[in-house]
Specification:
Blueprint: H1 2-12, E1 20-24, H2 29-42, E2 48-53, E3 63-67, H3 72-82, E4 88-94, H4 102-111, E5 116-119, E6 125-127, H5 133-140, E7 169-173, E8 182-188, H6 198-210, E9 214-222, H7 230-233, E10 238-243, H8 258-261, H9 266-278, E11 283-287, E12 298-301, H10 305-315, H11 319-335, E13 341-344, H12 347-353, E14 365-367, E15 387-391, H13 397-414, E16 422-426, H14 431-438, E17 450-453, H15 460-465, E18 468-471, H16 481-488, E19 492-495, E20 512-513, H17 517-529, H18 531-548, H19 551-566, E21 570-574, H20 580-588, H21 598-601, E22 605-611, E23 614-625, E24 628-636, H22 645-656, E25 660-666, H23 670-678, E26 682-687, E27 698-704
Parallel strand pairs: 1-2, 1-4, 2-3, 4-5, 8-9, 8-11, 9-10, 11-12, 12-13, 13-14, 15-16, 15-18, 16-17, 18-19, 19-20, 24-25
Antiparallel strand pairs: 5-6, 7-10, 21-22, 22-23, 23-24, 25-27, 26-27
Length: 706
């Protein structure tokens, strides 16, 4: 009965009672065809039509309706004629950035205003309806499907889809703690292994170098729990992995940048404070500006983030880009002032932080550049061919912009001129995931001469086979590790100005610098045609890397900064005659110490711990044989005890002269005996009535140092 009534009603209206699916090919076939195929799978019982502008080969299983290009009204009239007797049940329409299909999309709205099933460039679907007007508008503007219904807590407190902050964490034990090493804690937004991008490379190598003198506590966020931890545990005492929060607020809705909230975890904050207290960690270093709210001694600015967003805004002057830039400048200007030291990658970044208009006058900015493992990245003879190499993880959005600049503007100039030229791109883990997030398209346009790779564990073979390394970076801050690796592998580099900024490279001497598409293509073409120039640039760049960017040298910069902070201004140096009054003062206030004539100490190895000009403690040692030494006296100003000064003095002399150490200490001097035990000294003998002032026994202690 219901079926007959339906036929009757639609017969009176002059319509076929069975609704049809009309898909509009309002975008590139690479997306439009999969959209139609998906609809055919989901609604197989319906008749399917596809509408195209102009001629089209059609899609099997769907009737083709080709429209003559024209105005929106002209297209709508053609659609009305074509579907005069048909009832449209669903109208899938592809919404992408191409402007040539706007008229077809408008005509689709006029034909079936309540039936539009919008598809974005990720092929996500959403029904465009008035009752979900805000979500429909956001989807039409390109917002991902899983975020179009997000509303800020301050506007819609009743919404259920809220941020999730897991309380799960893991604590992994690495190498044993040593009293001969100071302790430092490092907070990172990710685990720095595998070495899949520049930030991980930097953190891994600098921590490995610092581990020679420090016990390291690494705090990092985990994004899946499958981290390869063994290489890092070789030099870290402990690794604390905390599950990363899932931030579910609209990105525009907060005064603080959303990247900051993405890493706000109460359990991480609790563990950070707990371990600092329990293990008496002396230096705390925070990697990346958006982790600054956790606090510490050193903030590492991997890039000056507000400058990065300023560059984005200057390329795309929209309100949303300005908003990102303004709030990052506001947040970063306050964050950096809360740390005792700020580390930047280059002099340029230090200069940016000192600009008056940025309100960031920071006298304690230190430059610790990025580096390269010169032992691992050794030059090999160049292979014949015309192969370009681009390394840049798509996780970092400037690399996506760089890839598009090269493939859309530079590559079309090179491709026809060099028919044998190929391009290899190392885009890091899950490149298509980040591509869709930043660009909106499912994947980059296919090209049989462009090889797109994900994460590559060892990139050295790719450098070996490359003729030229390209760095088409349009937006950048800090310094690029990929340029340093190419320099170390002795491969010529064509880069934009910002791509090699901060490395002190010279155009046509150690690098080819080009900022426009035509100049970039010319640089690549010149180096491909001129092997002598190519090899000269590459060799000069390798020598420059050897002189300035060895991780071992850069590691010393970081450890010296940590020692400076750990000592809170304490300087340990050889004693001079001017220090004797201070030594006399400390010795007179320390009845438990050995009482000698202070002037006699200068004939031995005597070192003082100085707080500015004030002598806070001293230690006297002597060598008694090859590989064997003795601590003759150690004393600290009573007002400054229990601040690590005595430990710093012992650590200094033992570290400088490894071997067997001996000392005598009063039996009653328990604090000193406990201090020496922490460094591994063992009680091996007693000397009866050793001290002449009161006849007290001496405890003989020995350390077998290596």
């Amino acid at each position: 009965m219901r079926r007959r009534l339906k036929r009757l009603v639609f017969g009176v209206l002059g319509k076929d009672p069975e609704a049809v699916v009309v898909s509009f090919l309002s975008g590139a076939d690479a997306l439009a065809v999969p959209m139609v195929e998906e609809m055919k799978r989901r609604v197989p019982e319906r008749r399917h039509y596809v509408v195209s502008l102009g001629a089209h080969p059609g899609i099997p299983g769907a009737a083709l309706v080709s429209l003559t290009p024209g105005s929106t009204w002209h297209l709508y009239r053609q659609l009305r004629r074509a579907f005069r007797r048909l009832r449209v049940g669903i109208a899938p329409v592809l919404f992408t950035a191409e402007g040539e299909h706007r008229g077809l999309r408008r005509a689709a709205f006029l034909l079936a205003p309540g039936k539009i099933l919008a598809h974005n460039s990720r092929l996500e679907r959403h029904h465009l309806r008035l009752r979900t007007g805000i979500a429909s508008w956001l989807f039409w503007r390109g917002a991902p499907l899983d975020r179009i219904f997000l509303r800020p807590r301050w506007l819609c407190p009743w919404k259920k889809d809220r941020s999730e902050v897991p309380a799960t964490y893991r604590v992994l034990d690495g190498r044993p703690l040593s009293p001969l090493r100071r302790r430092a804690a490092i907070l990172s937004p990710y685990f720095p292994y595998p070495l899949s991008h520049g930030g991980a490379v930097r953190i891994f190598h600098l921590l490995r170098e610092a581990a020679r003198e420090f016990d390291l506590f690494l705090f990092a966020f985990s994004e899946g729990g499958s981290e390869e931890t063994a290489p890092v545990l070789e030099f870290c005492a402990k690794v604390i992995l905390v599950a990363k929060p899932r931030y579910r607020e609209p990105r525009w809705s907060s005064l603080t940048p959303p990247e900051v909230y993405e890493y706000q975890s109460p359990i991480m904050r609790q563990l950070w404070g707990q371990y600092l207290r329990e293990h008496k960690i002396e230096v705390q270093q925070v990697e990346y500006t958006y982790l600054a709210p956790y606090g510490g001694d050193v903030l590492v600015e991997h890039d000056v983030t507000f400058d990065l967003y300023r560059q984005v805004f200057e390329r795309e002057r929209t309100l949303s880009r300005w908003w990102d830039w303004w709030r990052w400048q506001r947040f970063e200007s306050r964050a950096v002032r809360s740390f005792r030291r700020v580390v930047t990658m280059s002099d340029k970044d230090s200069w940016l932080l000192s600009l008056p208009q940025g309100k960031l006058v920071l006298p304690q900015v230190r430059v610790v550049p990025n580096g390269v493992d010169l032992e691992r990245f050794r030059p090999e003879e160049e292979r014949s061919g015309q192969r370009l190499l681009f390394i840049g993880s798509f996780r970092h959005f400037p690399n996506v912009i760089a890839y598009r600049f090269f493939t859309e503007q530079v590559w079309p100039l090179l491709r026809p001129e060099f028919p044998e030229m190929t391009v290899t791109v190392v885009a890091g883990p899950d490149p298509l995931l980040f591509w869709r997030s930043y660009i909106g398209a499912l994947e980059p346009p296919a090209d049989e001469r462009v090889r797109l790779l994900g994460f590559v564990r060892d990139v050295r073979p790719l450098y070996v086979e490359a003729s030229v390394v390209i760095v088409p970076t349009l937006i950048s801050a800090g310094t690029n590790v990929k340029v340093l690796e190419a320099m170390a592998m002795e491969r010529a580099v064509v880069s934009t100005s910002c791509g090699c900024a901060g490395l002190e490279l010279e155009h046509r001497a150690s690098v080819w610098i080009a900022d426009t598409a035509a100049e970039f293509a010319q640089g690549v073409a010149t180096l491909i045609r001129d092997p002598d120039l190519r090899h000269t640039l590459a060799r000069t760049a390798r020598l420059h890397a050897e002189a300035h960017f060895d991780w071992k040298t850069l590691g010393e910069l970081q450890t010296s900064l940590w020692h400076e902070l750990a000592s809170a201004g304490l300087v340990i140096r050889p004693a001079t005659a001017q220090d004797l009054p201070g030594i006399q003062r400390i010795q007179g206030a320390s009845p438990e110490a050995v009482v000698w004539d202070p002037a006699s100490y200068l004939s031995y190895d005597c070192r003082v711990a100085a707080l500015r000009e004030y002598i806070a403690g001293f230690v006297v040692t002597r060598s008694v044989a090859a590989g064997e030494a003795e601590i003759l006296n150690l004393a600290v100003d009573p007002k400054l005890r229990r601040h690590g000064i005595g430990a710093a003095l012992v650590r200094e002399v033992v570290r400088q002269s490894p071997g067997n150490w001996f000392l005598e200490v009063r039996e009653s001097n328990l604090p000193a005996r406990n201090l020496f035990r922490k460094f591994g000294f063992e009680e091996v003998d007693r000397r009866r009535n050793y001290y002449q002032d009161n006849g007290e026994d001496a405890v003989v202690m020995r350390l077998e140092s290596c």
